[in-house]
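Researcher: Re-running this chain for the archive, since the previous output was lost when a drive failed. Same request as before.
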Amino acid sequence: MNKDKASYLEGVISIILNIFLFALKFWAGIVTKSIALTADAWHTLSDSLSSLIVVLSVRFAAKKPDRQHPFGHGRIEQIAALFIAFMLAIIAYDFLTSAISQLTDHKSTTFGTLAIVVTITSIVLKEALAQYAFFVGKKYDNISIKADGWHHRSDAISSVVVLVGILFAKKFWWIDGVLGIIIALMLFYTTYIIIKEAITKLLGEEPSQELIDKITAIAKSIYDKDLQLHHFHIHNYVSQQELTFHIKLDGNLSIKIGHDIATKIENAIKEQLDITTTIHVEPLNFAHNLD
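Model: Regenerated structure tokens:
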């Protein structure tokens, strides 16, 4: 299964299960007259929106490059991840204000056995969805899928809060409020991580040392005499990656020989790593502020 199909499947499965869990929680909330469980149901439904964004982003990201977008449409995944992160921030803010309000008003909630069963079911299914999304996101390096996984986990965490409230509400009236504040702060941190990763990829980043080592090995397998590589930069367009770096060669070599060496290295990197590379050639004794 390729990246697009795996990402699309993750989104579709998430939408179906989220709608099922919404209906289950909403029904249980009405039967038990639990405000917390009803609110948690709407939180689950919001996950369907993030999964829908993932499905749409996969569709757009798979479009081939055109005149207006010569590097393809892959970065829409980062944009989708930012949107999901903002949704997480809104949910976190709602958690925070609700928890503070619950503490200041000294509110407590009475739950039934049905609420326990439904909440545990939600925790198990939502964490399973989160693990599935993390697996797909890591395997195919899809940041929007990873963000969707965090959204699933946020719902699982909110269900844990509800479950703790169910089990300890009679003994500690304040437990929901305190845990709500803690989880809200965790969600804000998660939002920060997702936004940081998405913006880093959008702005361009330094390649990992592992990638640099691979590139260096490829280059030196082609030309190892007085070859120096430096100033690496990579631009991740998801559907393709653009790499630039400088090489230093013997200044007595002709332009043609230098060009041939650079071209052979570019072709080898494309063949072995599937990365499009542009190499800037410099004489060996040349120094500038980028060194």
